[in-house]
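Re-run requested by the PI after the first attempt was lost when the workstation crashed. Everything re-entered from the original request form. Ligand of interest: zinc ion.
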Amino acid sequence: MKNYFKNLYKKIMNLLFPNDLKCMFCNKDIANAKEKPFCEECESKAPFNVGQRCRICDMDMSGESEVCDFCKNYHKHFDRSFSAMRYEKSPKSLVIKLKNNNAKYLAPKMAQLMFERIKNENIKFDIIIPVPLSAKSLKKRKYNQSKLLAEELSKLTLIEVNNSCLAKIKETKHQKNLNFNDRKTNLIGAFKVIDKKPLINRNVLLVDDVMTTGATANECSKTLKKYANNVFVVTFARNPLKNLEN
Ligand SMILES: [Zn+2]
Ligand SMILES: [Zn+2]
């Protein structure tokens, strides 16, 4: 009888909140998605970004140093960056779903993991800014997935989100389709601060869905830092294999 009511409750909840009681990775039913949005099996095998990490780029590393060799040699415009997951397997498919398949219901769960990643880090920020899309991309895609994540992070941190002070003013090519030199020039001048007032003397949390080459986060940070103090970057997933390009 107890199971009957439990199942009935689950069914009703599923009708009311269809995706809230599903594991974000495998879609299996779970008991309490508010605490952890994934099942036990996925918890044990999903590629979380854990272990010793570079303090700046969040890359896996070993040894005594806090900063990887790459970050020692090449200056990054952001102060620190954090990613909840590795950009492979199930996290990769979630990023693609959120971006291309209108799967907006994933945003709260993905943001929950991003929040878990940063909540014990000693960073102070007073404004949250999503990486913007160009007007043309926004028109084509209808929504900015990074803005959805930023709004969810705002609910969790109680820090305001600002979607209007940073804009993408240049249409750029996909970084992955370019050679090394073109990647370097592709993003130059792509972003612009439209309203500097919210940035002056403030620390920014810059939000993006994924960090692949790091060039976007770097260029946004460079633009924001004309006015802002520190810029911290948080993404849902990060390329685990590559050093970030400069
Ligand atoms: Zn699962
Ligand atoms: Zn590094």
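Saved to the shared folder this time. The mean pLDDT is 89.
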